[in-house]
Nicotinamidase-like amidase (Thermobacillus composti), 190 residues
Amino acid sequence: MPDAPARIDGTYEALPRMASVLEAYRARELPIIHAVRLYKEDGSNVDLCRREAIEQGLRVVAPNTEGAELVRDIRPAQYASLHAERLLNGEFQPVGRSEWAMYKPRWGAFYGTDLERFLRDRGVDTIVFIGCNYPNCPRTSIYEASERDFRIVMVFDAMSQVYEQGIREMRNIGVHVCTVWDVMEAVRSL
């Protein structure tokens, strides 16, 4: 986290707010998906913009390392570890009640994955986004969800690297932008 090789400013500080949203969802047994990246040491599955660094020995989210695990602050109580090989094969790994981890090969969680089918099979029509590095993964996943006609909620204070223009852009495509407090109130009313 603060000393991680791929540290993202603001992520460590947002973890308590992310954890609050996750705990509220867990209490109501609402579905949670953790979309994770895993970079094989040979770089064969790494985005072009990072491939050379991985091929030259940078170890970031390498399978079966602590850096590839869910961050302790957001793990469900019964969490053991991620099964990298199964995730890399496209499986959704149960990590808690109504909670799964999935591997995403690129910025967006829908690209090259079965996420849409997985959600539709469970009757999910609304996705609430929290997480790290808004300019890359959350923003891309939000656009992909919008392209698939999901209703979308962006919890801006449970996300790192959010900026005002990004919030305006999300609102312009129909995303409901809100706070952790708003989500907590909505979940309590279910």
Remarks:
- The two ends are 33 Å apart (CA to CA).
